[in-house]
Amino acid sequence: MMGFLSVFTVAMTLLLVICGVALLPALLVIGAVVLVFSLVAGVIGLVFRLVGGLILILVAVPLMLAACGLALAIGIGILHAALPLLLVIGVIWLIAHHHRAAAPTLPHAQ
């Protein structure tokens, strides 16, 4: 950085000596224009952030809550529709698989 600054300084000094023009006012004007553009860009960025936050709060959060509520309602509906069927299947399975072994019979004496 120091090398660039020294080259810049030499170039400005040569322009001052050769052209007899002081470039400080021009540099101040350029700096002021850059400052104005930077401030305008910062304000525009701030406005975009505020608008984005408002959109997030006013649109995205209610849509997320609605989607979660819809998913919950569908899940509860499917559970209520399938629960009696699962209960019947479970009872049939228990009846089929829960038979007790018959007590061993004694051989008949002959």
Detailed description of the structure:
It contains two helices and no strands. It has helices spanning 2-19, 24-97. The protein has a domain at 26-95. The chain is rod-shaped, with a radius of gyration of 42 Å. 0% of the residues are buried. It has 110 residues and is mainly α.
Quick rundown:
With 110 residues, the protein is mainly alpha-helical. Helices cover 84% and strands 0% of the residues.
Beta content: under 5%
Distance from N terminus to C terminus (CA atoms, Å) equals: 118 Å
The ordered H/E elements are HH
Helix content: over 70%
Main sheet record: none
Low-confidence stretches: none
Which properties best describe this structure?
110 residues, 0% strand, mainly alpha
Secondary structure elements and their pairing?
Elements: H1 2-19, H2 24-97
